[in-house]
């Protein structure tokens, strides 16, 4: 399947009080970790940011593109829209830059499910994970409609397009601890992430 990856790195990090994309976890910034983890797929990676200059740390990947938000201050939905517009692929796996422990096998599984749907999104009980999901370019018109209505909830999109939910029992097969959905939002999260990264020696040394 023709797939690209969109990394949302435009968050203001209000709870952390700094640009979390540049925070170091296991000797690499969160952004560097994300690009390294996604680069194994050999696809284009699009980083969406509010300020391109803020991402001054080098990320070594030849198929990398950095774009700024088309509609500033429109939250994650605006970031998804900007990434989809910039992408050359019909299907795009969108992730937030602050998810340091994504399961590559889970991502592969989600990509395999994407044909025939406009969104593939994990669901754990009543909670969905819209920032670790596959979106097709077919979502663009509906996202633009939501943005024009000042409705920035990503979940609102799911009522307007065809959605495949990846349920907990499927996720458990690849990621039983659900660490793929661990986000770094606070200092406590940052401390926990650094502790968890201590068990990733083989990954960090790649």
Structure overview:
- It is globular, with a radius of gyration of 16 Å.
- Strands 1, 4, 5, 6, 7, 8, 9 and 10 form an eight-stranded mixed sheet that branches. It has a two-stranded antiparallel sheet with strand order 2-3.
- The protein is an alpha/beta fold and 206 residues long.
- The chain has eight helices and ten strands.
- α2 runs antiparallel to α4.
- It has a single domain, classed as Spore Coat Polysaccharide Biosynthesis Protein SpsA, Chain A, CATH 3.90.550.10.
- The C terminus is likely disordered.
Note the overall shape.
globular
Which structural class matches the secondary elements? alpha/beta
Tell me the domain tally: 1
User: Given this structure, which CATH class is correct?
Assistant: Alpha Beta
How much of the sequence lies in strands comes to: 15-25%
CATH level-4 homologous superfamily? Spore Coat Polysaccharide Biosynthesis Protein SpsA, Chain A
Mean pLDDT: 89
Treating each run of at least 4 consecutive H or I residues as one helix, how many helices?
Answer: 8
Distance between the termini: 26 Å
| Unreliable stretches covering 5 or more consecutive residues | 201-206
Radius of gyration: 16 Å
CATH topology: Spore Coat Polysaccharide Biosynthesis Protein SpsA, Chain A
- Main beta sheet: 8 strands, mixed
The assigned CATH architecture is Alpha-Beta Complex
Query: What's the total number of strands?
Result: 10
Q: How much helix, percentage-wise, in residues? A: 25-40%
């Amino acid at each position: 399947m023709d797939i690209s990856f969109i990394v949302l790195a435009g968050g203001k990090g209000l709870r952390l009080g700094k640009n979390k994309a540049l925070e170091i976890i296991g000797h690499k910034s969160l952004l560097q970790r994300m690009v390294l983890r996604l680069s194994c797929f050999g696809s284009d990676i699009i980083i969406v940011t509010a300020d391109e200059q803020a991402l001054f740390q080098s990320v070594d990947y030849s198929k990398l593109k950095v774009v700024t938000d088309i509609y500033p201050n429109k939250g994650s939905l605006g970031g998804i829209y900007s990434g989809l517009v910039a992408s050359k692929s019909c299907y795009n796996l969108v992730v937030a830059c602050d998810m340091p422990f994504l399961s590559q096998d889970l991502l592969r599984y989600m990509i395999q499910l994407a044909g025939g749907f406009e969104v593939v999104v994990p669901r754990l009980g009543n909670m969905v994970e819209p920032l670790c999901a596959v979106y097709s370019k077919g979502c663009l018109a509906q996202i633009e409609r939501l943005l024009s209505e000042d409705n920035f909830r990503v979940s609102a999109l799911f009522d307007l397009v065809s959605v495949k939910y990846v349920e907990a029992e499927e996720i458990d097969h690849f990621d039983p601890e659900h660490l793929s959905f661990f986000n770094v939002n606070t200092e406590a999260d940052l401390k926990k992430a650094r502790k968890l990264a201590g068990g990733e020696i083989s990954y960090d040394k790649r």
